[in-house]
Amino acid sequence: MAHSSQALVISCSDPRLNAGGIEAVIVREMICSNQNFDRLIWPGGGKDLLSTDPAIVDYWLAAIKKLWELHHFPKIVLIWHDTCGAYGISNLHEEETTQTTDLAAITQLLAEKFSQLTVERFILQGTDTGDFSLKRV
């Protein structure tokens, strides 16, 4: 039996994003109209798509491909967040600049590998307070 979803959301495993917080933001910001989306959750989100280790990159691409084959989502949504331990950058401006650069490079890679999909990218702000908002980058 085939199932479909509205998107694949790739985000960080930081426990501050749990308890429905990130899911609620995704629906509230109309990234997806309901909670019908796939999730890939990993420390640092998908920043390992930029790894210098080809096996790690291949793992990520294989996971995305498998999910797309199963659920035929039309888009990939990358959601990074502020004060991310996987980045380990204490200056919020420097962290956002680095994340924005990484998100652009990952978007380019995904566009090359999955040209049939659109890619949206965001930085979730308010991680420390739980007062979440999304910034499109």
What characteristics describe this protein?
137 residues; alpha/beta; Beta-carbonic Anhydrase, Chain A; 5-stranded mixed sheet; 35% helix; 21% strand; globular
Spell out the blueprint of helices and strands:
Elements: E1 8-12, H1 21-28, E2 38-42, H2 54-71, E3 75-81, H3 92-113, E4 118-125, E5 133-136
Parallel strand pairs: 1-2, 1-3, 3-4
Antiparallel strand pairs: 4-5
Q: Would you write up a description of this structure?
A:
The protein has 137 residues and is an alpha/beta fold. The chain has one domain (8-136): Carbonic anhydrase (Beta-carbonic Anhydrase, Chain A). It is 35% helix and 21% strand. It contains 3 helices and 5 strands. The protein has helices at residues 21-28, 54-71, 92-113, and strands at 8-12, 38-42, 75-81, 118-125, 133-136.
Q: Write down how many β-strands occur, each being a DSSP E stretch of 2 or more residues.
A: 5
CATH top level label = Alpha Beta
Number of domains: 1
Strand content: 15-25%
Shape: globular
C-alpha-based Rg, rounded: 14 Å
**What is the assigned CATH homologous superfamily?**
Carbonic anhydrase
Overall average residue pLDDT: 91
Strand order of the largest sheet: 2-1-3-4-5
Low-confidence stretches: none
Briefly note the structural class of the backbone.
alpha/beta
Instruction: Kindly state the percentage of residues in helix.
Output: 25-40%
